[in-house]
Structures are given as C-alpha cells and as structure tokens.
Amino acid sequence: QIQTNFSLIMTTSLANVGVKRKISDFFGKAKGNEKSVTLEKDEKRLKKEERVRTFLSVIKDEEWRNALLESEIGKKYLIDLTEFISGERKKYAVYPPEEEVFAALDACSLSKIKVVIIGQDPYHGPGQANGLAFSIKKNAQCKYPPSLRNILQQVNNDIGVSISKNATDLSYWARQGVLLLNTVLTVRNGQANSHHNHGWEQFTDAIIRIIDSRSSPKNGVVFLLWGKPALTKCKSISKSKHRIIISSHPSPLSHLKTDSPFTGSNCFSRCNKFLLHDLGYAHAIDWSLPSDEEEGTNKEEDEKKKKKRLWYQRL
C-alpha cells in the first residue's frame, strides 16, 4: 500500500511538472509575441512620426520648423492631422497649395514677430488663399472678400493711407513682423470650415504658446484679436508680456457690432503706439500696401520704399 501511494504521488507530481512545463512554454511564447507586437507598434509609430516630419519639412523657416518639431512631434493629434490632410488631398482640391500651407510662418520668423492677427480658415475658392490670414494671392480672379475690404478701409480711416484697389496680398505686412495666422490652415474646395476639428486648432494653439513662451516683456508682441474666436484662442497669453487690442470681427455681419466694433477701433494706430512706446521697438508697422507695380522684388527694395512713407514716425 505504501508503494502504491508513493507511485500515485510521483505520477501526480510528474503530471503537474508536465503541466507546468506546458504553461511555462505557453507563457514563454506569449512573451515573445508581446515583444513582436511591441516592435511592430514602435515601427508603425516611427513611420507615422516620419510622415509628420515630412509634413512639417514644408516649413521653410528653420526657427519655426525646429520649434514645432521640438514641441509637437509624437503627439497623436498631429499624426492624425497629417493622415487626414494626406487623405483629403488625394480625394479633393485643398487650399492653399501644399507649399503655401505654412506661408504665414515662412514670411514671419519667430524671432521677428511684432504683431499677431488671428483669422479663422483660408478662403475656399480656387486661386485665392496664399497661406496668410485675410490675404489673397496677387491678381486672383475672384470677388473681393468683404472682410479684407473692411480691414483696408479701417487702415485708411485710422491712418489716412490710401491703399490701391488691386493690393490684396498682405505679404508686405508679414515681412515686417505681422504673423497673419489662421486658426485652421487648410480647407476643402468650396466648403468653408471643412477642416475644422481635425487637429489644426491644437497646432495653432501650439504656435501661440511658443510665441508666448519665447517672448519676454522686452520683446512682447501686440495681439489684434478680432472677434470672439480669436479672443478665446489667445485667452492664456501673458498680459504682462504682451499688449492686446480687442474688437469685433471685420466681417460685414460683425464689424459694427459689440461694445468694441472693428470699424472705428483705430486698432492699427493703437498697435503702433504700443510697439513704439510700450514695447520699445525701433520701428512700427507700415500698414500701407504697395500695389503690385510699386512693390519691391526683395526686402531691400521694400525697405527703401517704406522709409519714404514716414507717417508712422509721427506717432
């Protein structure tokens, strides 16, 4: 009987060992699979990040490109945005063209910014959007945007500068340090707001955070916030570093409304006073717009023409 019990115990133990070996073998395989799955996920993530780097490589300005890569690379919203825009361009006409999506950043380096103007999304008609908020390509064959008309009329009323009717490209402002930033940087042909809520809002929030974090009271900027969306977007900026001018939006439906209407706000002369007297800049913004025939072909020629327009030095 003792021998029988011993045999039973040994058989049971060996059986258990066998089971344990099988379980061990099973878990060993599972761990191997987990490593394989992890490596596969890492490879996919790296490929997606590489697509993001390619997406941002379109930014010609090195300051902005490096700052945004440092701040945003690897964030899920930017990976999703990159894939969304790629898919949209395969199926639809998207504006502005790929090489002009980041034109606002290319035209106004991070270290050169004096003024920030926030728009909403690009014009959604062919040949209009050039990557700068409120601006239209030179010689665009389209109806003159009423918001831009109200903006240039306010420049005329505020500062007394008459602007040519064919001057619609605001690149001249951008080259002086005015960041003309739309909240959303692309749009589908003929469909306003079609690219809202796909990641651009977070991306342009990051741009504003970078401006805020890299500025000091000695080199603050003036924010021209036209309308509630622009005000909401910039609600977290440091009021001790920067100066803020608030008004309604320049659109036909809004430019005369609220307690601070855009029309009559004198926002352009007020901006220049802040730049010269509060923030200590040597030069204000020349808010005039040379016509296509007058505008210089390079920055040196533009600077010579700007010096001839001395109205802002009287502020």
TrEMBL record:
One of its GO terms (cellular component) is nucleus. SUPFAM superfamilies: Uracil-DNA glycosylase-like (SSF52141). Signal peptide: none annotated. Residues 305-315 have a biased composition (Basic residues). It is an enzyme of class 3 (hydrolase). HAMAP family: UDG. Excises uracil residues from the DNA which can arise as a result of misincorporation of dUMP residues by DNA polymerase or due to deamination of cytosine. This is Uracil-DNA glycosylase.
